Amino acid sequence: MERVKMLPENFDGIVRFTNWSDEDFVGRYNSKDYEFKANSTCPLFNVDLTGPTGEAKMASPLELLNIVKKFALDLAIREWGKSQWTKDNLKRERNADGTPRFQGMQGAATYSIDQLAPLIQKGLYVYPESKPHVSEVQRPKLEDKLSKNEKGKRSSGVVEDGASMAALAASFDK
After folding, report:
1. pLDDT in the model for residue 164
2. Which residues of 40-53 are buried (b: 16+ CB within 10 A; e: fewer)?
3. What are the C-alpha distances in Å from 103 to residues 93, 106, 108, 111, 149?
4. Is the domain of 83 the same as that of 154?
5. 107-162 pLDDT, tens digit each
6. Same domain, 161 and 98
7. Does residue 165 sit in the same domain as residue 150?
8. How far apart are CA 41 and CA 21, in angstroms?
9. Exposed, middle or buried: residue 168 (CB in 10 Å: 0-12, 13-18, 19+)?
10. pLDDT greater than 90 at residue 46
11. Number of structural domains the chain divides into
12. Higher pLDDT, 32 or 92
């Protein structure tokens, strides 16, 4: 999908996202989760674009339109996966006992942007307004991610000059 390069002619100054589905939708942008209630429209004003340097920057209306477009695409993909078309194709790609056929697993989950366009457009229509719930996404420290195993135990470390790698490895929790 192309980015929006200019504001629409009839833009009223408020960027809105509509969750047209029957269940709440969580869109993620810039390490934050934005939760939108089912069948509601939320105005987006203050989307934090703080980068890795920590410099705070709020989104412009043009940037907000592109963020809303991303949320609309994510919602469309989620709902496409639940559609009757997808379910029917999954049935055709399965054997009678439910196991997947050898050469039949490509078509059911695929889609084109043209098929998603009507669903994306729904995300831009206006429903009764509500406010999104924004929550910070917790990211593990990079050092922990690179030096600990899936159980959270230390599995690697920095070897100092003249130190024994065998001694360092023996110090790790298995």
Report:
1. 77
2. bbbebeebeeeeee
3. 8, 8, 12, 18, 36
4. no
5. 656 777 888 888 888 887 665 566 777 888 777 777 776 777 777 777 766 677 77
6. no
7. yes
8. 11
9. middle
10. no
11. 2
12. 32
